[in-house]
Amino acid sequence: MKRLLFLLAFIATPAFAVNPDEVLDDPALEARAREISAGLRCVVCRGENIDESNASIARDLRLLVRERLVAGDSNEEVTEFVVERYGEYVLMKPNTSGANLLLWLAGPALFVAAAFGALVYLRGRSTAKEPGETGLSAEERARIAELTGKSGE
């Protein structure tokens, strides 16, 4: 029973790909490295941050982050350095400025426009008259009678 609980606990924990040889001796720097790595996307794995990825490029990025921290860079400087090299794609949460602002606002704006369009359509349907309610005018009845050769009613 204890083995089963141990196995379940082991499986339930996230599997990080950080190798022991990558871990920094200073716990404060290692915590900063983990924080930065959690915000950087693996360029191969797409859905994983570089801490979770086993790809070789992710390992290179983890080492790069740790090198920059040991060199004395701040968290922001390290992130900017990586973004300069690989583009904003490496950010797990892209910035909300510049052209990205348009992308961030496009989804909610399109949702509001679609909701407004649906509201107008449904309101128009609820106030529309039934097709049989209007009937034909006297002129229309006379024209039909003329075309069909029958006398008007």
Automatic annotation (TrEMBL):
<keyword id="KW-0201">Cytochrome c-type biogenesis</keyword>
<keyword id="KW-0732">Signal</keyword>
<feature type="transmembrane region" description="Helical">
    <location>
        <begin position="101"/>
        <end position="122"/>
    </location>
</feature>
<keyword id="KW-0479">Metal-binding</keyword>
<feature type="domain" description="CcmH/CycL/Ccl2/NrfF N-terminal">
    <location>
        <begin position="6"/>
        <end position="147"/>
    </location>
</feature>
<keyword id="KW-0349">Heme</keyword>
<keyword id="KW-0408">Iron</keyword>
<protein>
    <recommendedName>
        <fullName>Cytochrome c-type biogenesis protein</fullName>
    </recommendedName>
</protein>
<keyword id="KW-0472">Membrane</keyword>
<dbReference type="InterPro" id="IPR005616">
    <property type="entry name" value="CcmH/CycL/Ccl2/NrfF_N"/>
</dbReference>
<dbReference type="InterPro" id="IPR051263">
    <property type="entry name" value="C-type_cytochrome_biogenesis"/>
</dbReference>
<feature type="signal peptide">
    <location>
        <begin position="1"/>
        <end position="17"/>
    </location>
</feature>
<dbReference type="Pfam" id="PF03918">
    <property type="entry name" value="CcmH"/>
</dbReference>
<comment type="function">
    <text>Possible subunit of a heme lyase.</text>
</comment>
<keyword id="KW-1133">Transmembrane helix</keyword>
<comment type="similarity">
    <text>Belongs to the CcmH/CycL/Ccl2/NrfF family.</text>
</comment>
<keyword id="KW-0812">Transmembrane</keyword>
